[in-house]
Amino acid sequence: ELPENWTDTRETLLEGMLFSLKYMGMTLVEQPKGEELSAAAVKRIVATAKASGKKLQKVTLKVSPRGIVLNDSRTNELIENVSIYRISYCTADKIHDKVFAYIAQNQLNENLECHAFLCTKRKMAQAVTLTVAQAFKIAFEFWQAAKEG
User: Fold this and answer.
1) What would the pLDDT profile of 103-119 be if each residue is shown by its tens digit?
2) Distance from CA of residue 121 to its chain's centroid?
3) Cβ atoms < 10 Å from Cβ of 49
4) Least buried of 33, 37, 65, 127, by fewest C-beta within 10 Å?
């Protein structure tokens, strides 16, 4: 569900919207989408992150209609650049409500990976999810326009 004023954020989104999050980790999944699937994946990632006892890596997540760009907050080093067309699902987890996660296909080996991030608030996890949804919508409009043009 997109809010009515979302067209105002459209311009900002074209540039790319930034979120400061903590990267929790990644796990492989069997299917490209699904709430139960992603919930199970997030549960695994959270458990692994807790068990490792390591501090989570602070990252900057940039969302645009081109996809998701992930940088290390400290070094500004590029971690990953995920094309919007490789992302099959994103969600704010219901149980771990400060967790934003997305499922994407790995460019090198075609594996389906679920990546999870810890947000400062539940609202932020929802905001990131909505922003990715909006980016999808714009990317799809561009794709349609290109196809027709």
Assistant:
1) 999 989 999 999 999 99
2) 16
3) 17
4) 33
- Answer yes or no: are the C-beta atoms of 142 and 66 closer than 8 Å: no
Give residue for tokens 């006892």: 53
- Helix (H, G, I), strand (E, B), or coil: what is residue 8? helix
Closest CA to 71 of 19, 2, 31, 1: 19
Cα R_g (the chain), whole angstroms: 15
Q: Rounded to whole angstroms, how far apart are CA atoms 69 and 61?
A: 6
18 CB-near residues (< 8 Å, 6+ apart) = 60, 61, 62
Distance between CA atoms of 134 and 149, rounded to whole angstroms?
A: 22
Tell me: pLDDT of 13 over 60.
yes
Q: What angle do CA 19, 20, 22 make, to 5 degrees?
A: 125
Q: Work out the angle at residue 95's Cα, subtended by the Cα atoms of residues 124 and 130, and round it to the nearest 5 degrees.
A: 35
Tokens of 80: 């990953």
Task: Extract the tokens encoding 40.
Answer: 């199970």
Please give the pLDDT value at position 4. 59
Q: Which fold has domain 16-146?
A: PH-domain like (2.30.29)
How many whole angstroms separate alpha carbon 98 and alpha carbon 45?
13
Structure tokens at 60: 């900057």
